[in-house]
Amino acid sequence: MNLTDTHTHLYLSQFDSDRQEVVSRAKQEGVRHMLMPNIDSHTAGPMLRVAGEYPGLCLPMMGLHPTSVGESYDTELEIIEGWFEKENFVAVGETGIDLYWDTAYLEQQIKSLERHIQWAIKYDLPLVLHSRNSLGEIFGVLEKYRNKGLRGVFHCFPGGVEEAEKAIDLGFMLGIGGVVTYSNSQMPEVVGSTGLEHIVLETDAPFLAPHPKRGKRNESSYLKFIAGRVGDIKGMDAEEVARVTTANASRLFFSY
Ligand SMILES: [Zn+2]
Predict the structure, then answer these.
(1) 65 Cα–ligand 1 center, Å
(2) Distance between CA atoms of residues 63 and 43, nearest Å
(3) Residue 101 has what pLDDT?
(4) What range defines the domain where residue 206 resides?
(5) Which residues of the chain have pLDDT under 50?
(6) DSSP conformation letters of 197-250
(7) Count of domains for the chain
(8) What is the mean pLDDT of the chain?
(9) What pLDDT is recorded for position 219?
């Protein structure tokens, strides 16, 4: 298979004891690229170290996760902004709005999202969005930039069919992960009604492991279960799902 994991936090401490084995297993399963979204100023160092250990394989993004937007978010954003001058990144992210854990900082989260949008425009990079209980708010912000050539991914897409159409209309792809393998998920319906050209695959490792690994630590080698489930829904081979979604990811993140 030829897979791309468009969202893994491989640099987190959950992988400190066996990162090399995790990377080997991913390569054995055909994962050619692992894209790493940043979380905050503290994770940038570990993330860039992993990127340096696996050049061309593990590729970093830069951004401030919405659940890390708090009192000192302005200082955080300045540090994040500084990184864009020093290193190359495949995307701006992850950013977005999360109203599940905390609604107190909505205004700050919106301001942070807008700063990320400006970086995406300035550096001509895709935007990786995290959305939880917040699709309406994010769509509202993105509408303001409709004709600015924004592109990106709604990572772990949380909406229904109509919201998927809206996201695509705004220039974004849907990041599909382990949730599509869970029973009671609306993702099979969304995947069924969305053209495969609008979908990229992701693990969100170490979180959200797909069936039959649900509840365990997630890792990029499990991407095959997600490709398999998407294939079942679409009536396609997992190989074909892997091929098309990897081509989508290459177009979006590497412009080829
Ligand atoms: Zn993430």
Answers:
(1) 8
(2) 10
(3) 84
(4) 3-254
(5) none
(6) GGEEE---BTSSPPTTSTTS---GGGHHHHHHHHHHHHT--HHHHHHHHHHHHI
(7) 1
(8) 97
(9) 98
